[in-house]
Specification:
Blueprint: E1 4-8, H1 13-24, E2 28-32, H2 40-48
Parallel strand pairs: 1-2
Helix pairs in contact: 1-2
């Protein structure tokens, strides 16, 4: 039975390769990245292998500058 796998840095390099390999092995992959505009290769790899792909925007607050 597949596991749920969280991959950070999944837009390129080792993160992308790991996300694709985990999906091929039958795991449910939750992939995160700092630059969601670069999610194209991950979504293309998912579609090519018949996997579902869903993306959401970031809900992280912007960093604030401390005064003092």
């Amino acid at each position: 039975m597949g596991q749920i796998v969280l991959i950070t840095g999944a837009s390129s390099g080792m993160g992308l390769a790991t996300a694709v390999a985990c999906a091929q092995a039958g795991h449910e992959v939750v992939a995160t990245m700092r630059r969601p505009e670069r999610r194209g290769p991950l979504e293309e790899a998912a579609r090519a292998r018949g996997c579902a792909s869903t993306s959401r925007g970031s809900t992280s607050p912007r960093p604030t500058r401390r005064s003092g």
